Amino acid sequence: YNGILNRTQTKNITVSINASDVQGVSQVWSIPIIVRPTTNNYGLADGYKTISVLYVNGYNNALTNQALGSIHVNDLDDWSRATNSYQVISSTAGTFTANGSGLNGYLAASSTLYPGSYTVQTRVVKNSFTATGTVDLDVQSVDSEFVRQAATIRIQSEYPESLIDPTFGRRINTLRSALAQILIVTVDTIQILTIRSAPSTQIMNPLLPPLPFDQQKQQALTDVIFYVPNMAKELIENTLNTNLALFLSRYGIRATASGPNPCTNYGCPTGTTCRYDRTIQPLPYLVDTNLTSFVGINILDSADCVNSSTSVQPPSSLAADCITYSYNNSTYCPCTALQSYAPLGPYCEVLGRTFNANGGGYASFSGSAISNLSPTRFSFDFASRSPLRNGLLLLYGKNTPSVDDYFWTAIEIYNSQLRFHFGETISDTNRALNASTWYHVEYQFVGNTVLVSVNDCLYSSNVSNTTSTAYDPNVVQLYLGGLPAIGSTISDLYPSLMTVNTFNGCIRNVHSNGFYVDMSKAQTSTNSDYGQCSCTITNSCTTAVQPFINSVIVPWYTWLIIALVLLILATIIALGLLTCVRKRQQKKTLMSLYPDDIRENIIDYKETAGEEDHSAYNLGVLKKPVYAPTDDEIMSRMSMQNMGFTPMSNRRPSLGIYIEDKLIEQQATTIPYANDSQLHYTYEGEGSIVSDLSSIQSNESIDEHDYRFLYSWGPKFSRLADLYGGDDD
């Protein structure tokens, strides 16, 4: 071994040994090597861990008594979990165990898990040390359609554990951000379904020494399978394939392939051909680290070697807008005219068909739609309306006698469970079905063995498939939802079927040997319609159903232009707001020149000296004297001036003193008048000039031209008084 044995990288390693003697007898066996510390006196400390669980609706029973993740406490001597004892002391919901058979320090649910959050506390004991391990579980479920439409990206130099481990920086979050930016979607729409190890493309001799940790990690391949709403799987994988270099240059992730086809360079035995198929395995796929675990959907992309004489073939001609990608030999067709019937298959196949509640519904298809020649694989989904009734789901066989020379297949609902007919062999699943629930049914013929799965339950039977490749396909048909009830003797050919025309629900995704059955290509049908299965069947109409749209990827420069336009608009709005704020601040600065003013007494006048409004005030008030002497006083002063006397004490008081006297007089009166106050006018700025007063004109009245009061102003105005205060002559 050329690497370093230590506690952080290679504390567990397996070495293969080949031994042989001189007579040529040899044997290979493996020796596990565990690196442990020199002492065993380390204590324990409380630990915390998160576990994310994801499963397909109807597959939650597979989570029962399965390891969901190891129990974490801080222990420097964790080389063997089996030496510790574990006990669940509390849980917020459900029932959990940590000391079941084969768990060895792993947490498992002993009751069915449902979507939601769980908090489980465990007690860990090692020697005389005790610690508490707290686990937060987050459980989610998805529809099986997510799996069918999910895309795959292959990452090199990463293990599934290194992608989710917080000590490595949660690289899975970096990958989600990279996928979102390249696909131009939000990160929240990227739903990771599973993270699994992929087979290495390099063939290693098991007898050679194992590689050091760093070299093993550089060669490791990991497949991440994810779902994006409203985007076709083929479009996603093609977009990623054309941008693989961006993963490394921008995000430091080495992406080597998207949508890898397992049939590429795969060799099948003579008489068979390779067909790609995706299946959901019953048991979950666990990726475990100290601080977090991810329990994903066990998705298997398999290379099926099916009978080369199968009648199931791709369409002989494709539409002009269909594209076959060379990197994985997948085909994508936009199917624009059929989007109202979505979801669709890659060749525009309509995948769903609903059988109405009126009864007597069925649809028949050509016998070449599927095949039962071994080896073969066949699958479909179905959901029944409430209440659950007995009814025929599928019959694949001859429509003329005799039927005994053909290996016919039928599946029906009988006594609330599924019953399979493989020729004359009848097999019951003994599992109760529920209405308004989707079930995935799959069977595979391998020789004389048939392997059956219904969601997360597996069954097997031994049968005798005697179908010859020389049979006439024109007398074989596929019936879905029932059999013709009027003018037909087909039901009489299969007397072992209990009910033939009472199924009430929907069937979708009928898949045989790598291709889907087009539900719109029925030869005959009654009381059934093709298209998307109604959400009322499963009571899932909580939100508006978005049609499955093969989204067009918007170029990045379009988003750049939109961003620039929005930035310019934001800049203009910001400048406008700043201008308004600046003007308001300048106004406040000018008003602060009067710190003692009363705001409600400020008068803002916008007209220039009253030029536009001559009737809003009385100009005569401005011309009347504040102090008006009598005629006798005026004449007396004139005579005194002529005699050389100067008046001493009869001067007019100043305006300020006059105003103050009037204010004191008003406040002293016993009659309560409104309080008078001085009015301050708005500051007009330094250097203001008097506006035009041309509108203030003299009145023609004689009373208004009486200037004799000028004599009361004193000697300084005597000349002015003589000019204007004298007689007219």
TrEMBL record:
The Laminin G domain, residue ranges: 352-533
GO BP terms, alphabetized: adherens junction organization; calcium-dependent cell-cell adhesion via plasma membrane cell adhesion molecules; cell migration; cell morphogenesis; cell-cell adhesion mediated by cadherin; cell-cell junction assembly; homophilic cell adhesion via plasma membrane adhesion molecules
SUPFAM superfamilies to which the protein is assigned, alphabetical: Concanavalin A-like lectins/glucanases
Matching InterPro entries: Cadherin, Cadherin_Y-type_LIR, Catenin-bd_sf, ConA-like_dom_sf, Laminin_G
A GO-annotated cellular component: catenin complex
GO molecular function: beta-catenin binding; cadherin binding; calcium ion binding
Positions of transmembrane segments: 556-581
Key words, A-Z: Calcium, Disulfide bond, Membrane, Repeat, Signal, Transmembrane, Transmembrane helix
Localization terms from the record: Membrane
The organism's place on the tree of life at top rank: Eukaryota
The keyword Repeat appears for this protein: yes
Membrane topology: Single-pass membrane protein
Function per UniProt: Cadherins are calcium-dependent cell adhesion proteins.
Protein name (database record): Laminin G domain-containing protein
Organism from which the protein derives: Didymodactylos carnosus
Taxon lineage: Eukaryota, Metazoa, Spiralia, Gnathifera, Rotifera
